Amino acid sequence: MDISALQKARYSYKPKLPASLSLPVNEIAVKLGEPTEAIADGDALKAFFNRTYGKPIATFVKGANDSITRKLTVGVILSGGQAPGGHNVIAGLYDGLKKGNAASRLLGLLGGPSGLIDNKSVEITGPMMDIYRNTGGFDMIGSGRTKIETPEQFAASLENAKKLGLDAVVIIGGDDSNTNAALLAEYFLDRGSGIQVIGCPKTIDGDLKNEHIEISFGFDTAVKTYSELIGNIERDANSAKKYWHFIKLMGRSASHIALECALQTQPNITLVSEEVEAKKLSLGQVVDQICDAVVKRADNKENFGVVLVPEGLVEFIPEMKKLIEELNDIMAENEKDFSGLKNFSEQSDWLVTQLSDPSAYLFRSLPEEIAKELLMDRDPHGNVQVSRIETEKLLMNMAESKLEDLKKEGKYKGTFSTQDHFFGYEGRCAFPSNFDADYCYSLGFSAFVLIASGLTGYISSIKNLVAPADKWIAGGVPLTMMMNMEHRHGAQKPVIKKALVELDSKPFKAFAAERDTWAVKTSFVFPGAVQYYGPPEVCDQPTITLKLEKS
């Protein structure tokens, strides 16, 4: 295949490892701590995880480990959306297996979890692995969003794992995928199988983190990629001095991406979904905040600026959340009646008779294109696909209308020309930053050590990430330790708890201390492109969020 000059150069990059993983492989031992408890709902979780609940935290230390050289066959799954560094997790796992025993084999399960359910795999060889080292994407074996959740799927997974001769399965994914890993580990043990299951923390959204998982892989590269683009737009805005840019960023459940990009680029306005929900701000109040900054900047003859909007914002605005919930219920319960309506006008007229008065008023007040998106774009369960709602355009149009009113009242004398953007897929498959390349390789190698040491129901963990890589602390965390019970699809289910932006955290406080200044005074920062070669302060730095959290 044709490759770029950068891809060719990145093949030669040697990821850095923690000191404990740089030892001769037979000198990497596992130190186990005390039994652990889940973050909540321990008694209920024990019922689901009778065999795996309460396992101790594992840390790697220097010592004898005779089992680490045994011959192993391991299957690896890429689950969910892409994140930079996934190929390096596989590379770390592959290299660990081969260092342990040259006869060990790594099988890539194709297309995500369905590769295990449907028994579709490919053996990963040295030449195949070398093509993908330090590269972005999940194209080596593909990914998928299939969940292993029905009795038939669990049974097929075990049957096929046995057919393939697997000693272990590594699931690389986010919170839902690693919840799946925990359930699969329990199922295998409950059926008398010794097949181990290990997870790895992946998501660019940054919402799979806790005391022991300091960051999910891919977040570092994604936010640096988005920040480059935001910085470019800020520079353009400051050059042309005539546009307000509204930029929607990925992050449906949490605003970690928006917050980190704000810390890196210092835009005029950054909306944080968790704050909007905590303060119970209405859609109108959110628009008022934007207009307040626009008016103040216009008074300074600066009719331009940049606004960052988290993808999932509408679900955090109480009145919008209520509207979406009502629409989901009404359209699910009256699917036949709704599908018989001929056009949007008929749909809209019918819906306002079904909605509560506050929701009907809000629905009528929305721009027509946004209202259509609430009705047309639905997932297989009949729910609104929030990621497809053009929230940036909604805010832009409502701000424009509000500013026209202020102009009539003599309270605004500026001009308001706008541009809208959505940065999403641009960040998911970039060449991993040095940080992510190192971190992912370490996660993969750590997963090998966990497997070779006979552990199951763990997620690979690398801590102390603000230090140089040789000071990182490698090990594993029991998946049940990260879980609680949540109401999902009409029942209480065990899930890994999503980490939202905490308003009392150091990163948010650092942002909040400066945002009023950034709103009025042009304070843009231009991070530039992700750098792979040069001094560590340019190439190897973790995110600002991580540094603040660990300060």
UniProtKB/TrEMBL annotation:
GO terms for cellular component: cytosol. It comes from the Bacteria. InterPro entries: ATP_PFK, PfpB_PPi_PFK, Phosphofructokinase_dom, PKF_sf. Residues 74-330 form the Phosphofructokinase domain. GO terms for molecular function: 6-phosphofructokinase activity; ATP binding; diphosphate-fructose-6-phosphate 1-phosphotransferase activity; metal ion binding. Catalyzes the phosphorylation of D-fructose 6-phosphate, the first committing step of glycolysis. Uses inorganic phosphate (PPi) as phosphoryl donor instead of ATP like common ATP-dependent phosphofructokinases (ATP-PFKs), which renders the reaction reversible, and can thus function both in glycolysis and gluconeogenesis. Consistently, PPi-PFK can replace the enzymes of both the forward (ATP-PFK) and reverse (fructose-bisphosphatase (FBPase)) reactions. This is Pyrophosphate--fructose 6-phosphate 1-phosphotransferase. It comes from Treponema primitia (strain ATCC BAA-887 / DSM 12427 / ZAS-2).
